[in-house]
Write a structure and sequence with these properties.
Strand content: 35-45%
Low-confidence stretches: none
CATH class: Mainly Beta
Structural class: mainly beta
Protein name: Transporter
Largest sheet: 5 strands, antiparallel
CATH architecture: Roll
CATH topology: SH3 type barrels
Shape: globular
Distance between the termini: 18 Å
Radius of gyration: 12 Å
Number of domains: 1
Oligomer: single chain
Number of strands: 5
Mean pLDDT: 88
Strand order of the largest sheet: 4-3-2-1-5
Number of helices: 1
Helix content: under 10%
């Protein structure tokens, strides 16, 4: 999967859902637009391509770069997520 083949994410930021802990639940979001909320308060659109115990890999939407950029996330930093 190449970031150039991905379309832009939805044009909205969803309301934060209840806490969802652990990467296992995020596996159902593989290859889907997913909104991620981190413990530090940051949130962003993400397109996960791999979910492991110690890392989540995929592409993060960057408004500054006007597209998707390769990104890795530590699962312990994820507060909640919602896939579409």
């Amino acid at each position: 999967m190449s970031p150039s083949t991905l379309s832009s994410p939805p044009g909205f930021s969803p309301p934060i859902p209840a806490w969802q802990v652990g990467p296992s639940g995020l596996r159902r979001c593989l290859f889907r637009n997913t909104y991620i909320w981190l413990n530090n308060g940051n949130s962003f659109w993400f397109f996960p391509t791999f979910v492991g115990r110690n890392t989540i890999i995929g592409f993060r939407w960057s408004r500054r770069r006007f597209g998707w950029v390769y990104h890795m996330i530590n699962p312990n930093t994820v507060r909640s997520f919602q896939c579409f």
